User: Fold Maltase from Phytophthora kernoviae.
Amino acid sequence: MLPSTEPHYDTKDGWFQFDLSTASSIEFMFNDGVGVNWDNNSNTNYIATSAGSYTVASEVTGFKTGDLVRPNDDTGYHILFQAPSWSQPYFQYNAGSGWLEVPGYAMSPSSYLGKFSAANGWFQYDILSASLVQIAFNNGDGLWDSTVGSSHIWTSPGTEMGGILTINLAVNSALLATPYGDDLSTLVVTVSKTENDRVRVKIADKTSKRYTQNPFTFKVTRTSDGFTLFDSSGVPLVVKDQYLQVSTSLNDDLSVYGIGESTRDNFRMTSGEKYTLWARDQISSTPNVNTYGSHPFFLGLNSAGEAHGVLLLNSNGMDVTMKRGHLVYQTIGGVLDFNILMGPSPAEALSQYTKLIGRPKLMPYWSYGFHQCRWGYGSVDALRTVVNKYASNNLPLDVVWSDIDYMDRSHGFTLDPTNFKQREMAAFIKEIHAHGQKFIPIIDPGIPDDANDYAYTKGLEMDIFIKDTNGSPYLGQVWPGPTFFPDFFHPDAKAFWGEQLQHLYNKIEFDGLWIDMNEIANFCPGAMCGATSITGYFPSGAWYDIFNYSQIKSSGEAVTFPTTLEATERLIFSVLDQITKSST
Assistant:
C-alpha cells in the first residue's frame, strides 16, 4: 500500500491507501507482507459492495501516558490525552519548578487529524519551554488518570517566552569576505504567533551573549494539511549591513503572485525573472521596470486551490528572483522581518494581509463618481470649457482635477498670476460647487530654491528639509528647477506641510489633493546635484499598519509618528510616499 494522500487521514498518523478503479464489489484483508500478522477483523474478510472511500482502523490502543507518538521536531512537548468519559480533561505538570496548582490547565480539543483527532475524543496541551516535564491528568473534580506520567527531554538553541521563540546566532568565522561589507557579528531571530492565522519571523542585528547555530534555517508549515509555507534551507542566509539574502523553497505545484509594483505581462511570477522593488517616479509604459510603489508581498496558490501569503517588512531596495524551486530575496539593508499568513483560501490570505498592514479608510461618496484629469489645461477658461462641454454633451462629471498648470512657475502652493488669477479660480470653484461638483489640484513635495518663495523660507526657518551628508539641505531638481525636499519624518514636518496647505486653501477652496512626485522624484540624482547620500529622521515601526497613523482626531488633526531616529535614504525611500499622505 502507498502512503495516504487524503488530508484527513494523514500519512504521519500511520495511514496508507490503495485505489482500485475497476470493480463492482471487493473482498479484502491486510497483512504485514510476510503473512505473519493480519488485520483485526477476526479472520473475516472486509467486503465493500459499492464504489467510494473506505477507512479501516481499530481503536487507538497500546498507547499510555507519556508515550512518544511523533518524533521530536524541536517545537516542544505536544501532549495528547484521550478521556472518553471526561467532557473536559485538565493537565497538570511539573517542569522543574514545582507542580501547578490543582487542577492545572484545561486541555484543548486536539488539532491533529486522523487517529488523534478531536472527533476521536483526543485533547492536547503544548509546553514550549522545558527540558523535563512530569505530567498528570484529571477531570477537574478530583478524579485522576495517573499521578505521574512519563516524560521526554527537549533541548533547543531557542527559548520560548510568552509565545515568542528567540534564537541568538553568531557569525560563522569561516565565511569568505565579499564586497558588501563585514557580516553582522550577532543576530537575533524572533518567532511569534501574532494571530491564529499568522506567524512572524524576524532576523535582526544583536550584540549580546549568544548561541552559535550553523547553518541557521527556518521552516513554517500549516498544521491543517502539513503544507510548507516557508523554508529557508535552500540558499545560504547572508546578513551584512548593506546586503541581506534569504530564500524560500517553492513546491513544484505552487503559483506565485505579487512582488510589485512593476510593469509585466502577468501577475503570476515567472521562473528565471528578477523583480526589483524600489519606489520611483517611473511611467508604466516601459515593460519590466519597477515603478511607484514597493510591496514585498506574495500570494502562493497550490494545485489544490489552497493559498498562503508572505510579507517581508523591509522598505529598502531589493531584488526578488524566482528560480526553479526557490524565491530568493536580496536587499540592501534593514532586517528580515517576515509575516507568514496561513490562508488557506486566497480570500482569507488577502484578508489576513490587509488586516496586518491596515485597511484603507472609506472614501467620500463623491470620490466614486466620474473624474476628469490631465496636464495641459492652461487657464481657468480652459477648465471651464471642459466642464461646460461635459454638460452640453450630457456626460456625467463629478470631479475636475488640475495639474501643475495652475501654479506660478511650478512652485507648490501658488497660483499663476496671469492664467489662474485667484479671483477667477475662486469664482470657477464656486460655480462647480453650486452644481455639486468638486475640485482637486495637484501638489508636489519639492520646494523651489527661491528666496522669494514663502514655503522655501519657512522650511529653512523650521529646518525641515532633507539634508546631505554635510548637514546642508539636499539640493535636487524637479519642475521648479533647483529644489529642496521636506523630510516628512521630521517632527515638525506636519506643522510645516499643514501651514502650506492652509495657505493654498485660503486662496482656493479645494475638495481634495492630488499628491504627486513623492517617491521622492528627482531629475538629477547623484553628484551633479550635490551630495551622493542624504539623511533624515525616521520613526521606528513606521511601515507597520501604516493606515492606522492616518486616522483623524476629533480636532481634525492628523496623527503623526511619535518617535524619530537618524536614517539614510536607502532605508526610507520606499516609504516616503506613505508618510507624505499621512502628513497631508
